[in-house]
Amino acid sequence: MNKKIAWVTDTAALLDEKFIQDNQIHVLPLNIVFDEGVLRETVDMTHDEFYDKLRTTKTHPKTSQPAIGEVVALYKSLKQQGYACAIAIHTSQHLSGTYLSAFTAAQQAQFDVYPVDSKIGSFPMMKMIELGQQLERDGFEPDQIVEKINELADHSELSFIPASLSQLHKSGRVSGTQAFLSHLLNIKVVISFENGKVVMKEKVRAATKAKAYVETLLSKDLESSIIPEVAVIHCNNEEGAISWKSALEKAYPLITFQVLPLSACVGVHAGEGTLGLSWVRLPELVVPKQREKELVTI
Q: In whole angstroms, what is the distance from residue 233 CA to residue 196 CA?
């Protein structure tokens, strides 16, 4: 295959700078809308600056997708750089219009773009990019690559535990009564992605029970799937994530765990202190060869 493919995503994936540079990823920043104006995630503010503002702001911020002009400009630039097309992996279309905007922007830029609805955010988006680039190196055509990435999207999981319901109340996701009772009774909720939509999975007393519930979701998937990696995700709660990671490594010694921050856009709604887990149930296509041998031996 001679087509030169550009890889595009947004900051819902929150890729680290080394991954972006090593893999030549083009990242569109999502927007946080404060009273004083719009700030682009990772461009106009660091995460520390975002959480500092979130604690002190009088009006709760909102989130928005990248401006269509910004997307068109990126696609025109990629075309000028000699790329034949782009594969654009974006956060769930139920959470942001970025995925749908990619179609419009591609038409305006007169550039071939293959938009992908990841149906999720964070860690699985990174794995979709890794898979796609491997398939590109193996000579697959763009439409074939997108088909396999879509399969991976259907095998991706992410569940998180907001530290409190106060931020969800401020962003209009729960009522004031629910937030008050949650604080009074120490109720924690578990929120998961299901087919691209965010749903409340469970309500329990205490954070330890909420984490145990998320671990049961992981254990259930392990019964029928290969899960070599799990991300412990967090909203400005690295200490809590590292502590949970240590406990998980003892409970699941065959899994590689890593700690990853969540997008500031998640922080707007879920709040500082949020913790969660994310993983990908590997389809047969991406089972490592060495692991296949181990399975046969067992």
A: 18
CA distance 111 to 103: 10
Specify the pairing of strand 25-28 against strand 5-10. parallel
- Whether 89 contacts 121, CB under 8 Å: no
Question: Structural domains in the chain?
Answer: 5-30+65-153 (3.40.50.10170), 156-286 (3.30.1180.10)
Euclidean distance between CA atoms 31 and 43, whole angstroms: 10
Residue 149 burial class via C-beta count within 10 angstroms: exposed 0-12, middle 13-18, buried 19 and up: buried
The confidence score (pLDDT) of residue 294 equals 34
Convert the pLDDT of each residue in 76-97 to its tens digit.
999 999 999 999 999 999 999 9
Closest C-alpha among 155, 149, 154, 174 to residue 164: 174
Kindly report, residue by residue over 247-298, the tens digit of the pLDDT: 999 999 999 999 999 999 999 888 899 999 999 998 654 444 433 333 332 2
Q: What's the start-to-end Cα distance of the chain, in Å?
A: 38
Pair 202, 190: CB distance under 8 Å: yes
Q: Which of 145, 140, 135, 186 is nearest to 164 (CA)?
A: 186
